[in-house]
Design a protein that fits this description.
This protein is of the alpha+beta class and 339 residues long. The protein has twelve helices and 16 strands. The protein has a nine-stranded antiparallel beta sheet, with helices on both faces. It has a three-stranded mixed beta sheet with strand order 6-5-16, with no helix packed on it. Helix 1 runs parallel beside helix 6 and helix 1 crosses helix 7.
């Protein structure tokens, strides 16, 4: 695949089996990848936003299944039915009727500006009739947290997730990552191999894709999910909320392939895809942003967590899935599959 490098982390039964890197974080400078090298995790950020909203539900400041308009009267979409009935669960499962609208990310706006402009965005499907992946709507789901608390999504993520879990090398802005002492430079694939590209600032769409983290920090996050919201003996979010987040609510088949090992029965929870590998249920998410690719995966029954990072964008997911499946085969002794 001619990757610059790849970071991999594996945790099983609370024990880190592997945390490290292969190849280079920076080709030009010859810097290797380590377990503490920061990468943009892109859409893996969505699971953090869903968890934050679950925490706020536990605190009684919002409800995932209550129409947003009932506690935020200024919420308005183009479709009056969606305006009246849309819940955070609809937003987190991508069933609002809106398509991508990703071009809005690069505009010089605030999340409140986007909130006010939702009513002008025409849906391309009837409300709740289809699942259509939407970064914009995830950004707005995070903005709900901002509006009901009066705090920024960035501060809430830091105070409610990063700090309690000890994720000291994680942040919510490319600007912050570039100030850190160790981060992977982003690359695209070219005919002659990888070439460096500019870091893309997606702070506007932060709740959908702006988190940057390391292998070591992400293993803490995966263990927190494996333990259903418990960390260091403290329940940071109710087990009921975590089960709701991890549970598949809608049909969503991400992979185009059809292998016996991965039957076509996949779904989407709240910021997590659901799947099965060789009879073992798992939940995962992938992330792709300019120059970066990420995958986080949990097999809850086996208490196994896997994270893969690349500092190149496309092709990456096929390689990451192959690595993750091979790790599962080896750790659970399921027999070899030539991925």
């Amino acid at each position: 695949y001619k990757f610059p490098g790849m970071g991999i982390g594996v945790i099983k039964d609370g024990k880190v089996l592997f945390s490290g890197g292969f190849g280079l974080a920076d080709i030009e400078a010859g810097v290797p990848i380590s377990g503490d090298t920061q990468f943009a995790i892109a859409s893996c950020s969505k699971a953090f936003t869903a968890t934050l909203l679950g925490m706020l539900q536990d605190e009684g400041v919002l409800e995932l299944e209550r129409p947003v308009r009932e506690y935020l009267p200024d919420f308005e979409m183009y479709d009056p039915v969606a305006t009246a009935q849309c819940t955070l669960k609809d937003m987190l499962t991508h069933r609002t009727g809106l398509g991508g609208y990703d071009a809005l990310w690069s505009d010089d706006l605030t999340r409140e500006d986007l909130w006010k402009r939702l009513k002008y965005l025409k849906p391309n499907k009837p409300f709740r009739s289809a699942v259509q992946y939407s970064n914009l709507i995830y950004a707005m789901a995070g903005h709900v947290a901002e509006k009901v608390t009066g705090e920024s999504w960035d501060k809430l993520i830091k105070e409610k997730i990063f700090m309690p879990l000890g994720m000291t090398n994680s942040n919510t802005s490319i600007t912050e990552m570039l100030k850190s002492g160790s981060f992977a430079s982003p690359y695209w694939q070219g005919e002659d191999g990888p070439f460096r590209v500019e870091n893309w600032n997606v702070d506007l769409g932060g709740p959908a894709a702006a988190i940057n983290s390391t292998i070591n920090d992400m293993l803490k996050w995966l263990q927190f999910n494996i333990d259903r919201g418990q960390w260091a003996g403290k329940q940071l979010i109710s087990q009921a909320a975590m089960e709701e987040i991890h549970l598949a609510h809608v049909r969503y088949k991400l992979w185009k392939w059809d292998f016996d090992e991965v039957p076509p029965i996949a779904g989407y929870g709240l910021g997590w895809y659901n799947d099965v590998y060789k009879g073992h249920p798992l939940y995962f998410h992938i992330g792709e942003i300019e120059g970066y690719c990420s995958m986080q995966m949990v097999l809850p029954r086996e208490k196994l967590g896997i994270v893969c990072f690349n500092n190149v964008h496309k092709p990456c997911i096929l390689a990451q899935a192959s690595v993750a499946y091979t790790i599962i085969d080896n750790v659970l002794e399921l027999g070899e599959s030539n991925w």
